Amino acid sequence: MDSSYFIGIDTGTNSSKGVLIDNRGNIIAEHTTEHSMMNPKPKHFEHDAEKDWWGDFCTIANSIINKSKIDPKLIKAVGISALGADCLPVDKNCRPLRNAILYGIDARAENEIKQLTKYFGETQINKWYGRPLCSSDIVPKILWIKNNEPEIYNKTYKFLTATSYIVAKLTNNYVIDRFLGLASFNPLYDKKTLTVNEELCKTICRANQLAEIKETTDIAGYITKDAANQTGLAIGTPVIAGTDDSGAEAISCGVVSVGKMFLQFGSSIYMILCTKELVDDQRLWREDFIIPNVSDISAGTNTAGSLINWYKDNIFKERQSDNDFDLYETMIDDISHIELGSEGLITLPYFAGERTPINDPNARGLIFGLLLKHTKAHMYKSALEGIGFSINQQIKIMESHDNVKIDKIYAAGGGVKNEIWMQIVSDIIGKEIVIPSVTIGASYGDAMMAAIAIQFEGFKNFSDITDHIKIGKTYKPNMSNHEKYKSYQEIYDSIYSSTQKYAHQLSRLENNL
Questions:
Q1: CATH architecture of residue range(s) 5-246
Q2: How far is 113 from 206, CA to CA, in rounded Å?
Q3: Pairing of strands 46-47, 219-222
Q4: Is 322 exposed, middle or buried (0-12, 13-18, 19+ CB in 10 A)?
Q5: Residue 101: phi, psi to the nearest 5?
Q6: pTM of the prediction?
Q7: Which one in 87, 216, 241, 337 has a CA-CA gap of 20 to 30 Å to 452?
Q8: pLDDT in tens, 226-254
Q9: Could you give the 3-state DSSP secondary structure of residue 383?
Q10: In the chain, what are the domain boundaries?
């Protein structure tokens, strides 16, 4: 066996995953744990950071070491990623002061978005973000805590993301990577100096409540004695600054150069397209990517796998068994005979509001076109197609910019196991979708970035990662189906604007109950 190993652990919305690789990128051991997302109020989505983030990390690290039976001292570096634009206030001992407020799916800070937009002005906001403020930004979340939970705000030593929190628990150092810092905390960090903009912070929080910016592959610190006791990792093992789960998963697929695109099929959909420069479009997002001197244009839905789970738990619940995999297979079998377009059904997958391209937390899910002939199988296929229409809608927006090109699309995440869904999406977008042979996801990218951090042989830079990635399956679009889907896409693109008024009325009624 090889004598050098790297571990990567990723924390997501509903589960955490870890992987141990050797110095050739081979998987030696892996482990997955599950946790739940809390929804205490409408538009409020939270995690218990101590249990869901740190608890999962400790469980996974110990399990991987036990499974692999290797000496922890042979693990040369630790890579970390986690769900991105979340907000966790902690005290001086890195103890959470409340549940973590999650990424864009949590839309509690609508008033704070309005407050900040009024204070800075729409012109300045657009200059900073290239779009209006939205629920995926951390600044309104911090301000929400300041406005609504002042006692917690006053006790807050640092405002952290999930990655920052886990790194701090491992090393006692408070850091955030450049990718997340500049994107999610914009404009609290100065892009040129990569330091806190103290003047801008005055409106939101104290400058010393923010973590220090580092590159994703910079060493953030080393495993402490206390962390070693809890995780099983060796004292002094280097820990990288880490990043968000979507970025790490893109890296795991080899999305490391301009023109390459990543589709993350998880609880939600996240899309990253590497670009030469920042592209402003108020419907989407843009960032300086993890890889130095590469930008990206990105997009994200609020539901994907979570909508499939909703169908499993509610619409197909009479078939529930101890094996969810068997139930998912049955659900897929049920739709195999249904024609393209679900016999006249179109689903707006806005079952938890929506991020891009409409950026509307008050959007509502809609199943349009129901007739007596339709069954739950029609509805389920329409949901899969609806997510495909959403992806295509955003790809069309990206490609509408003259300086944006898409050379190749890679996909990963739990959803890629659904072959019918992948073919549906390929047909709708009219492009090939490439699935790497290793689809563990972000944790695999984390482990490889850990190797880059210490400049291990074969992992000197990001381009070397492609040498370790093999292609598993490629979905080629049926262009006849693509042409037929265009008519459905046109209807899909129009439904939201036609129903937005009534969705907002329903939201107001719900909130007044």
A1: 2-Layer Sandwich (3.30)
A2: 19
A3: unpaired
A4: exposed
A5: -85, 125
A6: 0.87
A7: 87
A8: 999 999 999 999 999 999 999 999 999 99
A9: helix
A10: 5-246
